Amino acid sequence: MDRDELAQALGECAYLEGDFVLRSGRRSQYYLDKYLFETRPELLGPVGEAIAEAVHEAEPDAVRLAGPELGAVALAAAASLASGLPFVIVRKEAKDYGTSKRLEGAFEEGDLTCLVEDVVTSAGAALDAVEALREAGLEVRNAVCVVDREEGGADALARAGVRLRGLFRVSDLSEGAKSAAKPHG
Q1: Are 39 and 74 in contact (CB under 8 A)?
Q2: Distance CA 19, CA 82 (A)
Q3: 170: enclosing H helix or E strand
Q4: Which residues contact 155 (CB under 8 A, 6 or more apart)?
Q5: Residue 123 CB: number of other CB atoms within 10 A?
């Protein structure tokens, strides 16, 4: 599946129009339901391959990937399989049982890690993950997301010293969705 076909497939599958409240609390007339493509192997596989390629280009010396729970875990796993790089899962907060960790998976202090994200709007979740990774001693300079909504997330990450590379802009997916418009509501 080439880039244009993947954009069209993601748009047809996951681009919804309606009235939505985003994680940031802002309202939007469209929503990208990442679970509609992350749970479909015929899309998750190509997305994982595209993420792996983007990670290799953006951070060729990365030794590890990281995916914030819950939305980016499947993406990090798919990119891990495609790239051969191990990954860690970044919890929203440390669990209060068992090992009480915020990061799940093996890593070593100083590991150059590329963050994998699903949809970036304001980058709040991505910034939280970067902070957790850095607190654990990992180095994070780059992030790869499936869709950049182009609403300030890249700038917010840049202020934290992280470059964002989006596989797609929201306009790439919305164009593909127009032919298969699925109003929500």
Answers
A1: yes
A2: 36
A3: helix 170-178
A4: none
A5: 28
Given a cut of 50, the residues of the chain with pLDDT beneath it are: 180-182
Torsions phi, psi for 142 (to 5 deg):
-140, 150
Give me the sign of the Cα torsion angle 133, 71, 22, 177: positive
User: Using N-to-C axis directions, what is the helix angle for 41-58 and 73-83, rounded to 10°?
Assistant: 70
Judged by DSSP in three states, 27 sits in strand
The token duo for 151 is 């609403």
Q: Give the C-alpha separation, 41 to 126, whole Å.
A: 24
3-state secondary structure of 175: helix
Identify the residue whose tokens are 């992350």.
38
Whether the full predicted model's pTM is greater than 0.85, yes or no, is: yes
Cβ-Cβ contacts under 8 Å for 78 (sequence gap 6 or more): 44, 45, 47, 48, 49, 51
The reported pLDDT for the residue numbered 178 is: 57
| CA distances from residue 89 to 68, 75, 144 in whole angstroms, order as listed | 6, 11, 15
